[in-house]
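Thread title: Can someone regenerate the structure for this chain?

I was given the following input by a collaborator and told the matching structure tokens would be attached. They weren't. Posting the sequence so someone can regenerate them.
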Amino acid sequence: MLAYPIKLTKDDNDTYLVTCPDFPEVTTFGEDRDDALDHAQDAIEEAISARMANREVIPRPSKGKLLVTLPTQAVLSVLLYNTMLERGINK
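Best answer:
Regenerated them for you:
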């Protein structure tokens, strides 16, 4: 299981801003808390895909109070990708 911490900030227009300390490029929002959490998961998965395309290491999750858990398929992809990258193995 990979669960990345996020930060929710209530915006002045009654939406929630989402950021992720492990992925500075992740910035999204939601109409309410649940919507923001759904968008956070999508944004983190997109950030992971972009890093894979650029052959960058995917960071291990840091600690936090509010976590977004990735789906099993995404977790397996990250673990395999990082192992291949560490060992210098290409597709």
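The beta strands are 3-5, 7-10, 16-20, 23-30, 67-69.
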